[in-house]
């Protein structure tokens, strides 16, 4: 089945017809065969691949890179108009032609309206900015709920703030020439 499907490019339906099996039986058997083949090959090649493992730091860097370039982020909200207006007022964002908020680098922020929302205590997005103190001051003067600024070895200078639905965002000071970006949280 594996050879017919993967090497001969037969559809699962064609394999099933050839072998007198239903399409779902072929799918199931191919799935189980792939698992067995993976186990078999991984045992045989483990010694070869072990020195070539990339490590957790590389995996995190790749994940961050992929997420950052996905192009849009989803935020649960109870009142889409209220939160849209809030982001426009505090961050001077523009709207796309579809009505979604446009972030830097043409990323889009999709506000998903829900009846009931229980925000988690982890950041939805992380903003990287040149001056954490200045942004916090602007947000606080605009009535935004913001925590105090903290400094640690992992994040450097940072603080958290909250949107009207109590979704948490993290702001981290970037140590370069003032480049601003917005990126997804990986914490």
Radius of gyration, in Å, reads 24 Å
* Structural domain count: 2
Label the overall shape. Answer: elongated
Strand composition percent? 15-25%
**Which CATH top level class of the largest domain fits?**
Alpha Beta
Helix content: 40-55%
What is the overall pLDDT average?
A: 81
Largest sheet strand order: 6-7-8-5-9
- CATH superfamily membership of the largest domain: 2,3-Dihydroxybiphenyl 1,2-Dioxygenase, domain 1
Second CATH tier, the architecture of the largest domain:
Roll
SSE order, as H and E?
A: HHHHEHEEEEHEEEE
Distinct helical segment count: 6
Work out the number of β strands. 9
The parts where pLDDT drops under 50 for at least 5 residues are: 177-187
Commentary on this structure:
The chain contains 6 helices and 9 strands, in the order ααααβαββββαββββ. It folds into 2 domains: 2-52; 59-184, 2,3-Dihydroxybiphenyl 1,2-Dioxygenase, domain 1 (Roll). The longest helix is centred in the first third of the chain and has 27 residues, at 23-49. The strands form 2 sheets. It has a 5-stranded mixed sheet. A hairpin with a 5-residue loop joins β2 and β3. It starts with a helix and ends with a strand. It has helices at 2-7, 12-19, 23-49, 56-68, 80-91, 132-141; strands at residues 72-77, 94-95, 101-102, 108-113, 125-129, 150-152, 156-162, 168-173, 181-184. It is of the alpha+beta class and 187 residues long. α2 (12-19) packs across α3.
């Amino acid at each position: 089945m594996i050879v017919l499907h993967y090497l001969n490019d037969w559809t699962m339906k064609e394999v099933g017809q050839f072998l007198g099996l239903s399409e779902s039986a072929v799918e199931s058997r191919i799935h189980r065969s792939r698992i067995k083949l993976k186990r078999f090959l991984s045992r045989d090649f483990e010694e070869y691949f072990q020195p070539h493992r990339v490590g957790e730091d590389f995996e995190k860097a790749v994940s961050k890179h992929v997420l950052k370039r996905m192009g849009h982020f989803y935020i649960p909200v109870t009142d889409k108009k209220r939160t849209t207006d809030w982001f426009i007022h505090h961050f001077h964002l523009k709207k796309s032609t579809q009505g979604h908020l446009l972030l830097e680098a043409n990323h889009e922020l999709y506000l998903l309206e829900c009846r009931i929302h229980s925000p988690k205590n982890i950041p939805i997005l992380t903003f990287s900015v040149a001056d954490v103190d200045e942004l916090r001051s602007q947000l606080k003067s605009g009535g935004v709920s913001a925590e105090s600024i903290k400094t640690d070895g992992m994040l450097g200078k940072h603080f958290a703030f909250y949107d009207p639905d109590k979704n948490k965002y993290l702001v981290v000071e970037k140590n370069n020439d003032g480049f601003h970006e917005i990126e997804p949280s990986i914490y």
